[in-house]
Specification:
- By secondary structure, the chain is α+β, with helices and mostly antiparallel strands.
- It has six helices and 14 strands.
- It has two domains: 27-141 and 148-153, no CATH class; 169-290, Nucleoside Triphosphate Pyrophosphohydrolase, CATH 3.90.79.
- The strands form three sheets. Strands 9, 10, 11, 12, 13 and 14 form a six-stranded mixed β-sheet that branches. Strands 3-4-1-2-5 form a five-stranded mixed β-sheet. It has a three-stranded antiparallel β-sheet with strand order 6-7-8, with no helix packed on it.
- The longest helix is centred in the middle third of the chain and has 19 residues, at 119-137.
- Bound molecules: zinc ion.
- Residues 141, 143-144, 146, 157, 159-160, 162 line the site of zinc ion (ZN).
- Residues 141, 143-144, 146, 157, 159-160, 162 line the site of zinc ion.
């Protein structure tokens, strides 16, 4: 199904500044969670001065894609002040099989590509993917089943007026510390030997702080206190907003309690295991603790 490119700003308040839209710039092209990137850029380990995206749409003429302009919002302001490139052109190929990549390009899992991207580029890639994924999974109204159409920042149903907005799932991510040691866990999805901070989605009716206490209790069977907010990070797999905390150990014997983790263990600064890459807030929490700079 081909959808007309959405024109951002339609129906928005008149006070909103007009923006220029660059339709000729680099394009995000996705198939599932994979993104089309220049092979030379990948071979260079993600040379941060070049843009790895195709400028032409090499797969044009397809009738099985969602094409849209993704409003970058604050993601754009990181490296492109208004009104330079406030929108990214993005495409999602819906076909089950990925088309062969054009010369000089490769399909790369976005989670893998993230480690080679600058923070700014990853933020744009993640938002473009998340936006397309929202469009892909909300093509029909969840109430009456009619096709949806794009209305400003929502997808709306012309039959029953139901609106769907891009989905966000807040999650807490916590480094539990106790003097010279920190508690890390081994999730099943992590690469061999890797440990990370504990994390979990916030449940309906819960505050962020309550989610921290519950998650740590469920996953590691310990109590924590002295919660300190650290920072947050949009994490597009699939649509999380990671909210980072430090928490002080307050009692209990740490063990993998609910089966979600294979192992939990205390580590000192000098004896850290393999930990996540620098693009993640988990790494940032660990690095900050290891540097002795708790907020
Ligand atoms: Zn409807």
């Amino acid at each position: 199904m081909r959808e007309l490119p959405a024109l951002p700003g339609r129906g928005s308040p008149p006070t909103r500044p007009r923006v220029s839209i660059d339709r000729t710039g680099p394009r995000w092209v996705f198939h599932g969670r994979r993104v089309l990137l220049a092979r030379a850029w990948l071979a260079d380990g993600g040379g941060h001065r070049t843009d790895p995206r195709p400028r032409e749409l090499p797969l044009s003429g397809r009738d099985d894609s969602i094409d849209m302009l993704v409003p970058m919002g604050s993601a754009a302001s990181v490296d492109a002040p208004r009104p330079a490139v406030p929108h990214d052109v993005a495409h999602s190929i819906l076909d089950t099989d990925a088309p062969p990549p054009p010369d000089g390009f490769e399909w790369v899992d976005l989670r893998v590509a993230a480690s080679a991207m600058s923070d700014a580029l990853f933020r744009r890639a993640g938002w473009a993917w998340q936006f397309l994924e929202w469009r892909r999974t909300h093509r029909y109204c969840g109430v009456c089943g009619s096709p949806t159409t794009h209305r400003s920042e929502a997808l709306g149903c012309d039959d029953c007026d139901h609106l769907s907005f891009p989905r966000l799932s807040p999650a807490v991510i916590v480094l539990v510390h106790d003097g010279d040691r920190a508690l890390l866990g081994r999730g099943r999805h992590l690469p061999e030997g890797m440990y990370s901070t504990l994390a979990g989605f916030v449940e309906p009716g819960e505050s962020l702080e309550q989610a921290v206490h519950r998650e740590i209790r469920e996953e590691a069977d310990i109590e924590v206190g002295d919660l300190r907010y650290y920072s947050s990070q949009p994490w597009p797999f699939p649509h999380s907003l990671m909210v980072g905390f430090f928490a002080r150990y307050a009692g209990g014997n740490a063990r993998p309690a609910d089966g979600e983790l294979d192992d939990v263990a205390w580590f000192t600064r000098d004896d850290l295991p393999r930990i996540p890459g620098r693009v993640s807030i988990a790494r940032s929490l660990i690095d900050t603790w290891a540097g002795g700079e708790l907020p």
